[in-house]
Amino acid sequence: MANDGHGHVDWQPAYMDFAQYYGFLPKACKPYRSRTKGKIERPIGYIRSSFWPVSFADLDDLNRQAAVWRVFANVKVDHVGVH
Q: Which intervals hold domain Integrase catalytic (predicted)?
């Protein structure tokens, strides 16, 4: 998908086929506007700050590191302690 920021979006044909098959119409958010897509922007920022970039030897090594990170990433921390 390419979004020019002025309302014109070039959707991938395969994605449009997918959307038509499942009966929804995709809607693009404005580029660089995190307020319009906060539900996805927050987790991406968290991943970037707490996991990525990492050093890895190959895809298997990266997948192993991601699996370990996911265990700790899903732990909720509050003012009392860890749950």
A: 1-83
Say which residues have a Cβ less than 8 Å from residue 50's Cβ, sequence separation at least 6: 69, 73
Q: Enter the tokens of residue 28.
A: 């693009």
Domain ranges of the chain: 1-32, 33-83
DSSP 3-state assignment of 48? helix
Return the bridge partners of 77, or none: 82
pLDDT digits (tens, 9 = 90+) for 8-54: 788 999 999 999 999 999 887 776 666 666 666 677 778 888 888 78
Length of the chain, in residues: 83
